[in-house]
């Protein structure tokens, strides 16, 4: 693979080369309900296990296969997990197993594992599957003693298999497991739901219909909540937060008001486990009958059912599952080198992989149900975790419009603009900002065409109803340009004076960041810029300092992944073919690297990791060796600006020449298709929440800087960028981020995703160094927090 992983600094970093898997046996199984992305997790476990020298086994049909043994437990090879990354469900099968719940069943399972010398178990499933695995681990020594007494295993076999190590990964589309922000399969299920909702919206609009949609979630309302947030639904029913006693009147009144404002459709989303405050089920048919009886609206019910479990996994789920799979193997290797390590689950908090004690997570998950049974619904919401709580708070802010008389009195004018190239999710962020701003009592102004429109005076007030239906729209409805404000400061200051703009929200890419820097630097000269200013990153390139993620990059990743899937399918038909694919990103290799990880690329060339002709030659040789196996295809991704001389044509010609007689080549430049399309659920949700948080910061800062009848603030911390850093959303002064920026190449000097490069190389069978400094720390689940006095603190 191109480049190296950098010098080893043994004093500060820990590398997994110290963890040897030789002589160890790892088994992987999927259990319970299937979820998209499970195959990516299985692939990562198998390839990482083989990479470190361990033997890896598939256990087919979950715990049933472990109990039955025989052909259900077979050794996995590198090639046996090829082509499964893009496949939904689980190719090794999953089954509910009553026998494993009995002592006799677990005794049979133990015998089958001992016969294969398997002492490391990776379980991918829900809380039931993981609880079963933990019980199995606790009983392990007793089960071995019974097997010895029955003469089924020898004393030597007991000694060499004395400890069973368990690591869990949560595969569940419901996202109902405490301790992780996202479970494997949730994002893909949201993709299925939003695809259906987007399609339904067009027909509903044509006929002025109301649609009631039932989504999965018997005990957890995450899918219903996030899909409601992502499509701007009129009403949502979830089990964790039942509606008040008079909900029928309130809902019908809201639907009626929406129609009176010329909204041609209504969307109501219902989790299958939805209940009222007396724990009585609320069904889709009951809601339909209510709407027809009270309002006379033409109403239809759609039950999505198992569509949500099916289909191709999203880019997010593939990356999540691949990261979790590699982390699971590292956890097993470390556990087998130490005594009494508790069974753990690898999970995602913010943007970081963490390990948590399995039973702590299970107990917390069970506490949620207990709180709901006892009608302690606010406790249930907090127990679900910060991510769930944030979604609920944001949905309430955006969906329930207050009467003008209920709004706080504010004389502040806040302007919103898009700057830079279009990015999917920008419109959802604008909608969120406008509606939260109005709820906070501000007068909201929309600026068309970025800073260019600003200095030309293309500014108008924007109302609540003006942004209806914006979440699902791609591109930028406000219009966006790359023009920087530096050459037009006089005119922009004049427009701010004319419209009495008291605060600015800029949603955009690198130009937005540089523009905010220019405005904040000009505060000494222009008092008009001495107002709160905040930027929300929105660019497919994900190249903004101060934030791990940008609005739009997830949609672009899905576009890249979908195209690569089709190309791989084409290559598998023709055999011995290598595709060279060019991605966007400027000098930032995020799309190429993470897209390569999600698509199963063999090589990815990026600017941040320099490469030369020897690297190119080594990569060609690597593909030549691959063509001798049963996987006779190759996928090479190249970031558009990775090297001035080694452009896409050069690499294509080099591979074509060097691969003569072994493989042939094709090239594909993806271009602007990466910027287009409807925003992914992640980008809709992320944009909505980030913009809401930004406006709440604006409100707080306006109040603090309002003195002597006017807004005035020139402190650096009032010109900020709001970004995700590891586990938290953080406001950072743009002046401080200057030192973190490579302005020539328009990228941050340090980028977190470079740590994923070695992982991608390992899964493509390259020898490399992998820094695991962030791994290995077993953390604890955060217990229930006292109720916040201000909901804005957590959005």
UniProtKB/TrEMBL annotation:
What cofactor does this chain's UniProt record say it requires? Answer: Mg(2+)
Among the Pfam families in the record, one is: PFK
Biological-process GO terms, alphabetical:
canonical glycolysis; fructose 1,6-bisphosphate metabolic process; fructose 6-phosphate metabolic process
Keywords per UniProt? Allosteric enzyme, ATP-binding, Cytoplasm, Glycolysis, Kinase, Magnesium, Metal-binding, Nucleotide-binding, Transferase
Query: Does this entry carry the keyword Repressor?
Result: no
User: Is the keyword Kinase assigned to this protein?
Assistant: yes
Name the residues that bind beta-D-fructose 2,6-bisphosphate.
482, 539-543, 577, 584-586, 640, 666, 672-675, 746
Query: Which reaction(s) does its UniProt entry say it catalyses?
Result: beta-D-fructose 6-phosphate + ATP = beta-D-fructose 1,6-bisphosphate + ADP + H(+)
Query: Which family does the entry's similarity section mention?
Result: Belongs to the phosphofructokinase type A (PFKA) family. ATP-dependent PFK group I subfamily. Eukaryotic two domain clade "E" sub-subfamily. Belongs to the phosphofructokinase type A (PFKA) family. ATP-dependent PFK group I subfamily. Eukaryotic two domain clade 'E' sub-subfamily.
- What is the recorded function of this protein according to its Swiss-Prot or TrEMBL entry? Catalyzes the phosphorylation of D-fructose 6-phosphate to fructose 1,6-bisphosphate by ATP, the first committing step of glycolysis.
Listed under subunit, the entry gives: Homo- and heterotetramers.
- This chain's protein is named ATP-dependent 6-phosphofructokinase
The root-end lineage is: Eukaryota, Metazoa, Chordata, Craniata, Vertebrata
């Amino acid at each position: 693979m191109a480049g190296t992983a950098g010098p080893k600094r043994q004093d500060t970093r820990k590398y997994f080369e110290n963890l040897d898997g030789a002589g160890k046996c790892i088994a992987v199984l999927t259990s319970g309900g299937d979820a998209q992305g499970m195959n990516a997790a299985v692939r990562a476990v198998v390839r990482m296990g083989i990479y470190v020298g361990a033997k890896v086994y598939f256990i087919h049909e979950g715990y049933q296969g472990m109990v039955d043994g025989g052909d259900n437990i077979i050794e996995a090879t590198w090639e046996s997990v090829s082509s499964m990354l893009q496949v939904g469900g689980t190719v090794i099968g999953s089954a509910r197993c009553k026998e494993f719940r009995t002592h006799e069943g677990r005794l049979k399972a133990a015998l089958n594992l001992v016969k294969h010398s398997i002492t490391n178990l990776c379980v991918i499933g829900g809380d039931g599957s993981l609880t079963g695995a933990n019980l199995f681990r606790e009983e392990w020594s007793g089960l071995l003693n019974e097997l010895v007494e029955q003469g089924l295993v020898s004393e030597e076999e007991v000694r060499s298999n004395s400890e069973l190590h368990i690591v869990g990964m949560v595969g569940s589309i419901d996202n109902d497991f405490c301790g992780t922000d996202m479970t494997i399969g949730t994002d893909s299920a949201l993709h299925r739901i939003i695809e259906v909702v987007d399609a339904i919206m067009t027909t509903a609009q044509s006929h002025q219909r109301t649609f009631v949609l039932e989504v999965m979630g018997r005990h957890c309302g995450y899918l219903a909540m996030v899909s409601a947030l992502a499509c701007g639904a009129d009403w949502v029913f979830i089990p964790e937060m039942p509606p008040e006693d008079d909900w029928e009147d309130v809902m019908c009144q809201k639907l009626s008001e929406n129609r009176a404002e010329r909204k041609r459709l209504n969307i109501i989303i219902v989790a299958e486990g939805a209940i009222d405050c007396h724990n009585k089920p609320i069904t889709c048919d009951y809601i339909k009958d209510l709407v027809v009886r009270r309002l006379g609206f033409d109403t239809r019910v759609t039950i999505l059912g198992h569509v949500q479990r099916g289909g191709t996994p999203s880019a997010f789920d593939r990356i999540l599952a691949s990261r979790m799979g590699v982390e699971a193997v590292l956890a097993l290797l470390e556990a087998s080198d130490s005594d009494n390590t508790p069974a753990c689950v690898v999970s995602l908090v913010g943007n970081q992989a963490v390990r948590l004690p399995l039973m702590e997570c299970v107990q917390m998950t069970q506490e949620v149900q207990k709180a709901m049974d006892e009608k302690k619904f606010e406790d249930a919401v907090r127990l679900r975790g910060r991510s769930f709580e944030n979604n609920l708070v944001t949905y309430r802010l955006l969906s329930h419009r207050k009467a003008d008389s209920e709004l706080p009195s504010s004389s502040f004018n806040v302007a919103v603009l898009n700057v830079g190239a279009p990015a999917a999710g920008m419109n959802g962020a604008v909608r969120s900002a406008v509606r939260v701003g109005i709820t906070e009592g501000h007068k909201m102004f929309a600026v068309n065409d970025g800073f260019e429109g600003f200095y030309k005076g293309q500014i108008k007030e924007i109302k609540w109803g003006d942004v209806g239906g914006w979440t699902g729209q791609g591109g930028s409805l406000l219009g966006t340009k790359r023009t920087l404000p530096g050459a037009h400061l006089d005119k922009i200051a004049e427009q701010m004076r004319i419209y009495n703009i008291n605060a600015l929200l800029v949603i955009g890419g690198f130009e937005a960041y540089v523009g905010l820097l220019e405005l904040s630097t000009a505060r000494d000269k222009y008092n008009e810029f001495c107002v709160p200013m905040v930027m929300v990153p929105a660019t497919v390139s994900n190249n903004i300092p101060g934030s791990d993620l940008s609005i739009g990059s997830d949609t672009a990743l899905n576009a890249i992944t979908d195209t690569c899937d089709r190309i791989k399918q084409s290559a598998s038909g023709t055999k011995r073919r290598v595709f060279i694919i060019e991605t966007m990103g400027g000098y930032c290799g995020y799309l190429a690297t993470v897209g390569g990880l999600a698509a199963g690329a063999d090589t990815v060339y990026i600017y941040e990791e320099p490469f030369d002709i020897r690297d190119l030659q080594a990569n060609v040789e690597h593909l030549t060796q691959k063509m001798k196996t049963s996987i006779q295809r190759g996928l090479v991704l190249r970031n558009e600006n990775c090297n001035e001389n080694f452009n896409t044509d050069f690499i294509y010609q080099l591979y074509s020449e060097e691969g003569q007689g072994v493989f042939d080549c094709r090239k594909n430049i993806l271009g602007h298709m990466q910027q287009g399309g409807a925003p992914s659920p992640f980008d809709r949700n992320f944009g909505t929440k980030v913009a809401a948080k930004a406006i709440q910061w604006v409100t707080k800062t306006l109040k603090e800087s309002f003195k002597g009848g006017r807004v005035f603030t020139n402190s650096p911390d009032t010109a900020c960028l709001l970004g995700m850093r590891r586990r938290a959303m953080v406001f950072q002064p743009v002046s401080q981020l200057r030192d973190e920026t490579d302005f020539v190449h328009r990228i941050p000097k340090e980028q977190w995703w470079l740590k994923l490069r070695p992982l991608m190389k390992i899964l493509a069978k390259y020898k490399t160094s992998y820094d695991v400094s962030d791994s290995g720390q077993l953390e604890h689940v955060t217990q229930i927090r006292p109720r916040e006095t201000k909901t804005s603190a957590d959005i």
